[in-house]
Predict the structure.
Amino acid sequence: MPKLKTKKSAAKRFRITGSGKKIVRRKANKNHLLEHKSKEQKRRRLSNLALVHENDEKEVRLMLPYA
């Protein structure tokens, strides 16, 4: 059976947790247009990592076959 290729775009966006059970992602809206967003929003709401929703987890795992 041939090797499976990893989707590089997904590899840059997602990480598997240490146990391998969950997938972590960065939150949106913290790249640009940051001047009008409050410091609280940027620090508290956008800086933390978020878990990928369980409905989307299957698709992400297919894109990362060796993760």
About this structure: The longest strand covers residues 14-16. Strands lie at 14-16, 23-25, 50-51.
